Amino acid sequence: MSTDAADSGSKGAVTVTPAAAEEALSLLRSEEMDTDEAGLRLFVQQGGCAGLSYGMRFDDAPEEDDTVTTHHGLRVFVDPASLNYVGGSTVDYESGLQAAGFHVENPNVVSECGCGESFRT
């Protein structure tokens, strides 16, 4: 398992904004998960009109081959295959009148579908 305990992340790793970390930690605590061990898993899966889509879930602990980073107290787990697509990305949390949710700003994307739910690198 690769680990980067710094709040800034390493080159190629995923970073998280303070707003996203705060929201994720709040959700983890509401699920009564141990924030010292559990974290947010970011992954890429086949799907969507552009070919790939993001997935996020909370996991109790990282897998052995995950890259693990910590940002503003939030642990983030990314598997090696997904890291190839999302390395260098930033996870943010946006809230507004029409919607609220996590958003991935991915510098590797060359095109996205119209709704922004899927992408191609």
From TrEMBL:
PANTHER family: IRON-SULFUR CLUSTER ASSEMBLY 2 HOMOLOG, MITOCHONDRIAL (PTHR43011)
UniProt xrefs under Gene3D superfamilies: HesB-like domain
Protein's recorded name: HesB/IscA family protein
UniProt organism field: Salinirubrum litoreum
Domain annotation Core: ranges: 14-117
